Amino acid sequence: MALAAAGRVLLQAGSRLGRREVVDGARRFANKRVEVEADEAAGIAVMKLKNPPVNSLSLEFLTEFLISLEKLENNKNFRGVILTSERPGVFSAGLDLMEMYGRNPAHYAEYWRAVQELWLRLYLSNMILVCAINGTSPAGGCLMALTCDHRIMADNPKYTIGLNESQLGIVAPFWFKDNFVNTVGYRTAEHALQLGLLFPPAEALKLGIVDEVVPEDQVHSKAQSVMAQWMAIPDHSRQLTKNMMRKAMADNLIKQREADIQNFVSFISRDSIQKSLHTYLEKLKQKKG
Ligand SMILES: CCCCCCCC/C=C\CC(=O)SCCNC(=O)CCNC(=O)[C@H](O)C(C)(C)COP(=O)(O)OP(=O)(O)OC[C@H]1O[C@@H](n2cnc3c(N)ncnc32)[C@H](O)[C@@H]1OP(=O)(O)O
Predict the structure, then answer these.
(1) pTM here?
(2) Nearest CA to 166 among 184, 146, 136, 190?
(3) What's the complex ipTM?
């Protein structure tokens, strides 16, 4: 119920933004920040994150992504989605820092609701989600990958993945933490979360953050072959199993969604947190010069 209502809000937001679909033969649709290659006959879509320069999860991106995902969810012919970046090198730089810095409480609340919605929609999706991680994927980018059923990462030691929030002076919320704990186990999560560690592919594989590491040029073919394996399982049994494994954790957020938004707004509005974000943004800028 809450999910459906939030979805409607996002769809309305989408039409307010005046997004127009570009339909190319009925197989591709794209908006500005998400490109979807939809093979209806095969039942598989590839969703490419396309929000330059670093695929940060801005409010506009989240809105467009959720609209595209909903279109696929609503078409029963689609059973599987491969998530990847249109820009190899960066899968996603995570939440958009500019949405969390120097804005007003109403904006923070709107943004956080959209972040929650992204997680809930992906985490509870009935479709098979395979993540083709073709670049670096910190924080919110890692979270997006963690919602998927199977993760394949490009074998490039320059790429890292993990929840690095504490390095920014912020804290991974409980549902980020729960998703991570359920993936890697309590001790590894406790250690990695406190230090805000980012792991190169080989280490991420060892810890179970990703399921496979393959040469960079094979990430997409591997994702297709993994998808074929998953598609061989009857939907009803796979979906019921997925729901059994995930529902309790998602319900935990759903039942305290409003409180979580309020927590986020008061946390992110603190002067000390704004200062930390400022320092981190400056560091990112200096890296260039
Ligand atoms: C009680 C509850 C409390 C809840 C608290 C809040 C919880 C928040 C949870 C999750 C948080 C996040 O997801 S925070 C985001 C974390 N992300 C990062 O730390 C990544 C930062 N970025 C990088 O490390 C690098 O940009 C990169 C490795 C991803 C890519 O490097 P590259 O060299 O290719 O690009 P640049 O670094 O030059 O960046 C280009 C350009 O993009 C800007 N940028 C980068 N990342 C972000 C971002 N996440 N949001 C917004 N903007 C970003 C960067 O500043 C550059 O901008 P300019 O060109 O203007 O300088």
Answers:
(1) 0.93
(2) 190
(3) 0.98
